[in-house]
Amino acid sequence: MNFADRMQEAVERCGNAALVGLDPHADSLPDEFAAARAPAASRAERAKACADFLCQVIELAAGKVPAVKPQSAFFELYGADGAQAWERVVAAARAAGLLVIGDVKRGDIDTTAKAYARAFLDPSAAGAAVCDAITVNPYLGADAMQPFVEACRAYDAGLFVLVRTSNKHSGLFQDHGTPKLYEHIARAVDSWGSELVGRSGLSSIGAVVGATHPAELLALRKLLPRTPFLIPGYGAQGAGASELAGGFLPGGRGALVNSSRGILFAYKLPRHAGLHWKDATRAAIAEMVTELRALAH
Amino acid sequence: MNFADRMQEAVERCGNAALVGLDPHADSLPDEFAAARAPAASRAERAKACADFLCQVIELAAGKVPAVKPQSAFFELYGADGAQAWERVVAAARAAGLLVIGDVKRGDIDTTAKAYARAFLDPSAAGAAVCDAITVNPYLGADAMQPFVEACRAYDAGLFVLVRTSNKHSGLFQDHGTPKLYEHIARAVDSWGSELVGRSGLSSIGAVVGATHPAELLALRKLLPRTPFLIPGYGAQGAGASELAGGFLPGGRGALVNSSRGILFAYKLPRHAGLHWKDATRAAIAEMVTELRALAH
Description:
Two copies of one chain form a homodimer. Chain A is an alpha/beta fold. Helix content of chain A is about 45%, strand content about 15%. Chain A contains 13 helices and eight strands. Chain A has an eight-stranded parallel beta barrel, surrounded by eight helices. In chain A, strand 4, helix 7 (about 140-155) and strand 5 form a beta-alpha-beta unit. In chain A, helix 2 (about 45-60) crosses helix 13 (about 275-295) and helix 5 (about 110-120) packs parallel to helix 7. At the A-B interface, helix 3, helix 4, helix 5, helix 7 and helix 8 of A face helix 3, helix 4, helix 5, helix 7 and helix 8 of B.
């Protein structure tokens, strides 16, 4: 089934559009995973502690949210051991019935782009660690995106193209020109996705649009009526549910809202003081699900 | 020593600015490495065949050219086995006295950018597989580049920021607006590098500028008098030495010229027909060195 349809089906099944970001910051892991930051631990031990933690988070999230988003950078930090940990985490999430959006922000030309696309989206290359979708960076242009789009067609996978990112100064280049660069890219995203529209009416070629820029989020939603949005910036990065509403299509369709630290490290928040990390994460997932439920109906 | 100074020293020592791209396309490897494409081979065997080939290429290139550029995508295709192969190849290149420019085109925000920077540039994270420099994608803005720039300061490493890429339609977004986006980014690159200028007068924050766009290459060279250029597009991608000249500073300084397929798979070129692949690659390196020698003096 087309990625957009699988995404929409998962959102409807769970009744919310929450996307749990799996960013295993070693310094923030609960004490039982302190091997991740122990100077005496080997690289393999540190990578394993991160994966152990994330596999337990996956158990807590399974059945409650539609998708998770592992962040490649925190795995690459451990080299080949991190790559093993990535494979274990992605496979565990898929086995738990969660969609996996690999946050890899890759982008390159020609056969190199094809190799990246296959590495993450082709089951014959990635095996049990295949992602349902990945994030990609469009700076190199349409010809550089084409191999990724073709991989989506070949493997029923999806993309989320960086359009307007959630960082404070994302406008430096993304707002450049008239029309603004991100609007120009948004129109290209719509065009790249035109042949991958599923039964849901959504395309498998999505866009990353930060909730930290609500006016742009609203404008892009109008410009892109069939593009799924991956919306970062909720929770720890500062945006609340009201800023998110503009990113959804009528009926609460067509978006996933990411929270990473707010879920993974909920045990560090004052309002969860005294809770075991699992209870804090469970509570944070429940809070997010409740907040987003209103938007996903 | 500052990356720019190490780069300039290596170019002067070798008498040329050749950068050998290490892109192990499985389909193009010589027959003795056919395990890389054998359907019956395990992923580990395929990754090992690629690394075996590249380690032999590194032996042929050592002492003759200043630097190599492994392309991450072709390693990521083999997951954790590919990550091991990457580490082996990078460590072998460094042990052979070659500068290593990791072609990873990463880019992300905040602590994620910091994790990517550490993964490739921090010797305490990457060990013997640490890179001297990496390629990065600037689309997310200056705040997203800052952790990479800080890593260069901390680890005496370098960056090559994508400015004008070598693909045919790179202008779609890179030429957007007035001034063009790539010019806007070029000025930012100059500013990011202002505090990392070495004794050579060059900064450790470089730019990727394709030889396939000679007019832009010349204009960018004038705009960025202290920025090292990584120039792809020579050889297999179509540009010759005359197109490259504009990318150098007076005295043949401040640039590295990449060739990947033209060196690695030289044995497939008609003019090398009948040669063992090693002799063909040796000849292709000698040809490139001769062509570039005129530019590096």
